[in-house]
Structures are given as structure tokens and as C-alpha cells.
Specification:
The structure holds two protein chains of two kinds.
Chain A (H helix, E strand, L loop, with lengths): L20 H24 L16
Chain B lengths: L2 H32 L4 H35 L9 H34 L12 H20 L6 H16 L1
Classes of the chains: A mainly alpha, B mainly alpha.
Chain lengths: 60, 171
């Protein structure tokens, strides 16, 4: 988190203006990505540790 | 936090964060070697991935998370006031948690290859791209958020701003 000054925030009074559009877009994209990853994991296996002979990792 | 201390903390945080991304790129290079058909190359690549992961990426991730928390709590940005800070925090914690959980698997595969040979570790033939590429994407996303700092106060940040504004008006 690289932070310098607290500029760039809107100033104002009264009711909360609502969640910004970019946050909503980000949330939808994140949910879609999670669904894709879950499907990929279920269909294609999980990669490292999947068949680890020493028993470490996920043990899938 | 005084300006001098803030600047020092920012430099440390930037170095650790960018170092984390650089180390992940090195890990991806080893990951490419890990899908080689040559068994010795595979074994060495997984050993390298375990070393880079445990001794470079994990310390950088923890350091980056700690300095990020210091930067947010020690400046007017706060931790929960702005969406970009909050999302950066969540993504960084998520990436660090997955990393810490996953490194035991990488170490176990590297140890197994060392002890029993590559042919005994069939499950690692596809490399570790889901974690390495996924981690890189998350870190780049955090970097973009931190540079652009998109506007948007959380409900908590909005209430704090109103309280602060009313105090200023009264005082």
C-alpha cells in the first residue's frame, strides 16, 4: 500500500454518496474470477502438492 | 508520523513491495524450467522455487504487509476509510495467506524430488503456474490501486470525514 498524502478524497456533507462504480465493477470481476478458478480447480486438479509422495501440501 | 519517518517508511514499503513482485517474476522463470522434460532441470528448478519462495518471497510479503499497515495507520489515509486502501489490504492479506499455506507444498515437492527422484513426483509435472501467475496478477492489481488511488470513501470513512468537518466548523 503505497501512500503519501490523503488527497483525492471527495469532501462533502450529508448522506453517503454510495459505493463507487469502480468498486462494484471490481467486486463483480472478483466474483467471476473466483468462479472460474473454482471450476478450473475442480476440473483440472490443483497443481503443486497434488500427488506429493511425501504427504506434504494439499494432499488432493 | 512525522514527514521524515513517513518518507523512510514509504521507501521501505516500496522496496519490499516491488521486491516481492520481482521475486515472483524470478519464481515464474524457475516455474518455466520446472515443466522441462529434463529431470535434473526439473529437480533443480523445484529446489530453486522452494528457496526463493521461503527465503525471499515470504519475508518480502510479510514485510510489505507490515509496512503497508504502518503506512495506512500512520497517515491520514487510515485502514478502512478509502476503498482502494481496504481492497489493497484484503488482496495483500489474501496473497500472503495463500503464499504461506502453499510454500509447504513447494518445499515438500522439492524435498521429494531430492529424495526419491523426479519420476516419483508425477503430480508436479504441470509446474506451479496457477499460484505464481495468480500471485503476480494480484500484486500488480495492488500496485495499480496504490498508484492511481481511485476515489471513493467507505461508509466508515464518510462518517469520519463528517465528524472531522463538524469539529473543524465548531472549533
Amino acid at each position: 500500500m503505497h501512500m503519501t498524502t490523503a488527497g483525492g478524497a471527495p469532501s462533502g456533507h450529508g448522506d453517503y454518496p454510495g459505493t463507487p462504480r469502480w468498486v462494484k465493477v471490481f467486486a463483480v470481476a472478483t466474483v467471476a474470477l473466483v468462479v472460474v478458478v473454482v471450476v478450473l480447480v475442480l476440473v483440472g486438479g490443483h497443481g503443486a502438492g497434488l500427488h506429493n509422495p511425501l504427504g506434504g501440501g494439499h494432499g488432493g | 508520523m512525522s514527514p521524515a519517518v513517513r518518507k523512510l517508511a514509504l521507501i521501505v514499503h516500496l522496496v519490499l513491495s516491488m521486491g516481492w513482485i520481482g521475486a515472483v517474476l524470478a519464481y515464474i522463470a524457475l516455474d518455466v524450467a520446472a515443466v522441462s522434460t529434463d529431470h535434473e532441470t526439473m529437480r533443480m528448478a523445484w529446489a530453486g522455487m522452494a528457496l526463493v519462495g521461503s527465503w525471499v518471497i515470504v519475508p518480502l510479503a510479510i514485510g510489505s504487509l507490515i509496512t503497508g499497515l504502518m503506512m495506512s495507520l500512520g497517515t491520514p489515509w487510515g485502514l478502512f476509510r478509502h476503498y482502494w486502501v481496504l481492497i489493497s489490504l484484503v488482496l495483500t492479506i489474501f496473497a500472503t495467506a495463500v503464499l504461506l499455506e502453499h510454500m509447504s507444498s513447494v518445499q515438500a515437492i522439492a524435498d521429494a524430488m531430492q529424495a526419491m527422484g523426479v519420476s516419483a513426483t508425477q503430480g508436479s509435472r504441470g509446474g506451479d503456474f496457477m499460484h505464481s501467475i495468480g500471485g503476480l496478477v494480484v500484486l500488480l492489481l495492488v500496485a495499480v490501486l496504490n498508484v492511481y488511488k481511485p476515489r471513493g470513501l467507505t461508509p466508515y470513512g464518510w462518517r469520519r470525514r463528517l465528524v472531522s468537518a463538524s469539529k473543524t466548523a465548531e472549533g
